[in-house]
Amino acid sequence: MPKKVTLSEKDTSLINKFKFFLQFEKGLTANTISAYERDIAQFAASSSSVALTERTSDDVIAYINELYKEGMSDKTVSRKRSSLVNFYKFLHMEELISDPIYERFPSPKVASSLPDVLSIEEVNALINAVSRNDEYGKRDRAILEFLYSTGARISEMIDVRIGDIFFDEQIVRLFGKGRKERYVPISRTAIELCEDYLNNARAKLLQYRQNNVMFLNRFGNKISRMGCWKIIDKYAREAGIKTHVSPHTLRHSFATHLLQGGANLRIVQTLLGHSSISTTQIYTNIDRNYLKEVHSLYHPRA
Q1: Residues annotated catalytic, as ranges
Q2: Which CATH number does 120-298 carry?
Q3: What confidence tens digit (pLDDT) does each residue in 41-98 have?
Q4: How many other CB atoms sit within 10 Å of the CB of residue 255?
Q5: For the CA atoms of the chain, what is the radius of gyration?
Q6: pLDDT, tens digit, for every residue of 6-26?
Q7: CATH fold group of domain 9-104
Q8: Domain ranges in the chain with CATH number 1.10.150.130
């Protein structure tokens, strides 16, 4: 697929209308909308002489087959197919096409891969690798503890405002996918680290600027997703953790450790902000693996 995509005015207009629908009707985040836009633009560029409204289900099938030939994984192809399904549903709903071709798009079989999870000991090592000697250490320690304590997505964490943290009640307000609001508990340890960061570090990062974003970068602006990735990768290496660790690893670990501790699956679903429990159930597979390990270690006839 070409990296630079040049589209006709008609196709560009259709994609812009779809983006407007996703933003204002569906309330999706900018990152999600950008992913949709890329997927649809790539499909449009695959046969630029044919307008998007003139494509057939056979065109989509041929495109999906081409993606496989390029070596894309089932998971990636499935995501791109989903983007096209939603796009053509929109066109059909708006009566811009008469044929619901999306009903005939092939569905790739995507195996559910288990997410990476740290042990409790590895989480402790990761967090304890942070020295709180300066404003950056205080911020980083608060970020790590916040992510593990709340199970927040990285996009949710970087958008947290000071007023979203109810310190006395130990509750945090998060805005998830589609700007859906939810309230989750936060540990006393995380609260204390956030208070230490607020009282002794944030003003140094903020300098003379004014904003109410909780976690700041060295320029006093909202910390970026990439900035958080770099922070976590740095301390994972310092802690001697061999597996790949990302912000989402802490979210996976949060869910898995709750289930291992006996938490109800529905409660974990609510804490994670999953709209469907089937999304949360992937963690039960990890938990079953943990139970098998415990069984083999301690059962007398295992």
Answers
A1: 153, 177, 248, 251, 274, 283
A2: 1.10.443.10
A3: 999 999 888 999 999 988 998 898 888 888 888 888 888 999 999 999 999 999 999 9
A4: 26
A5: 23
A6: 789 999 999 999 999 998 888
A7: DNA polymerase; domain 1 (1.10.150)
A8: 9-104
